[in-house]
Amino acid sequence: MTDRLRVGIVTVSDSVSQGKSRDATGAGLIALLCSETWSESFCVVGGHEAHVVCDDEEAIGGLVEDMMADGSVDVVVTAGGTGPSPRDVTPEALAPLLGKRFPGIVALMHMISAEKSPSPFWSLSRPVAALAARYPVLVIALPGSPKGAIECLEPVLPSLVISDPCFAAGPSRRGSKYPMIPLAEATKAVLDAVAGLPSPDTITVALEAAVGRVLAEDVVAHADFPPFPASMKDGYAVVAADGAGTYPVVDDVVAGANEAPPSLQPGSVVRITTGAPLPPGADAVVMVERTEVADAGSGDGPELAVTILDSVQAGADVRPPGCDIAAGTTVLAAGTVLTPADIGLLATLGVVAPRVVRAPRVVLLSTGTELVEAGTEGELPRGRIRDSNRPMLAARLAALPVEVVDLGIVADDEAAVAAALAHAAAHGDLVLTSGGVSMGQKDLVKPLLATMGSIHFGRVCLKPGKPTTFATLARTPASADAAPPAPGDAVLAFALPGNPVSALVTFELFVAPALALLALPLATRTAAIAAAGVRDPSAPALMPGLALAGAVLGHAIACDPARPEFHRVVLQWSARESAFVANSTGVQRSSRLASASGASALAFIPQQSEPLAKGAAVDVVLL
Ligand SMILES: Nc1nc2c(c(=O)[nH]1)N[C@H]1C(S)=C(S)[C@@H](COP(=O)(O)OP(=O)(O)OC[C@H]3O[C@@H](n4cnc5c(N)ncnc54)[C@H](O)[C@@H]3O)O[C@H]1N2
Ligand code: MOO
User: Fold this and answer.
1) Of 76, 354, 512, 527, which has fewest CB within 10 angstroms of its CB?
2) Ligand 2 atom closest to Cα of 465?
3) 464 prior amide bond cis, ω within 30
4) Ligand 2 pocket, 497 CB below 6 A?
């Protein structure tokens, strides 16, 4: 045995799974295994909460088998469902999965219960201790009460420690060495790594090329806009105090005229166009529709007199200087992703070469001996498929403020993958691979990344996307005479699963938000990460920057008791329900890219045994 025994805990309870009661038993068992006495021998897989499943034979068996097949546990401990009532079916659910039994462990549990329990009820409890038939996993089924479960487990823990070599030596332990961490932990690992990176370099770009780029510094207005009191209507500049009545038209001012008009005296008006500067002395504008011609004059020039039909307040239909942009204000903050409106603002201020952040460089490659270029024509040799991930990810990256270096397809050959990753780490800010991160003998990416830096996670409790891997790599200088990397500088590496849907979904969940943060000036990035509050366990588990919304399901959706799922859905607004209705894109297999085609969102389907009913509220990540 290499390390501590990895224990998965399952609470079997209708009331906990329906949210009617708190999982005190699961919490108690986790606390016991994490206590000072036992934490050197055991670690709890799956974070700080037990898996919860209802008292249903199929659901219990399915969950426990998934946990064992996953390779992330050495021991599964269930609590609950061992009593005599009709709903107590844990031993029956486990029976088909089990091989060798350990009656001694069961006898020990009964002895302890007899000693500690005031009532004889313990004798009706049916605890289980056995080795799984098909996996090197020990299965222990405990009674469900917090006191009973803890009392039964603690005395048998020494037997579990000594039993390990017996079962690990049989069918060798072939699970992943990477624990399957919860989404929130994965998010935190990415945020911690991004937070520690230096501020990106900055460059200036022409205004026409600046849309979508990230502003590197605050842009402050040095003058008021409008720079003069400007008319908001075509009509007549007036002295508001004059009120309604007939007045001579003494001048005509149009937008753009650069001659200062003479001061307007009370008892007279000036014809004016929208955007023209108000003559000194005028304090309001009356739109032409609220006037009548009193004396048209010759008809060639402005009318000689008009009747103002309504009296107006001072300031009516006038934009005072600085009302749109006041001198001294920060118009655009560093970190703003420039939109067309922002380009207009910069143009207003006369900023024609804004300083922006240098686009992070993403080095993209696909791994897989089976892959050929998308452009390969005709029938492919047996076993070969076209590389869809790289064109797909490149297309997605094209919508982001990043520069892409395409390293093409790399065969599953250790030397070739190692060389490609080393080149990527020398030339990129972020390395993005797909394929080669699961359990096959040709899945080389994880071990190679481990030699180049630190792997922060190698599996995430997520569907699709379980083998998603995130590492930070030491930045290697691109050439011998290149400047050494800045202290603390590192290259982010995301090794996405090869299944195309898994690659796309995990790109959306981790890579796109990480790139957005990477492209922020340090102060803005730090603030964005702090605002995300991922260090607060009650905060949302997703990366900041994702566009979240709520929706109701258009139909029931089955849930996975082992992993939360990001189900591809099409959202449609329902005026009747005043809500977005989410409808599945069909079979969600992670090789079936059609499930992502046309999807407008990823609906978060929680990890649970019961399906979500039609109309259930779900969180969605907008795509
Ligand atoms: N024993 C286990 N096997 C697998 C597990 C597991 O837990 N235990 N996890 C499965 C899951 S979940 C996923 S997702 C995949 C991920 O596998 P890899 O990341 O190692 O990817 P590959 O094996 O290289 O490829 C998987 C699949 O995708 C196709 N592929 C790969 N790259 C591309 C590409 N660029 N364009 C199109 N299609 C691609 C490849 O041909 C495979 O069909 O592992 C499961 N296995
Ligand atoms: O987790 Mo894999 O990405 O389901 O297919």
Assistant:
1) 527
2) 3
3) yes
4) yes
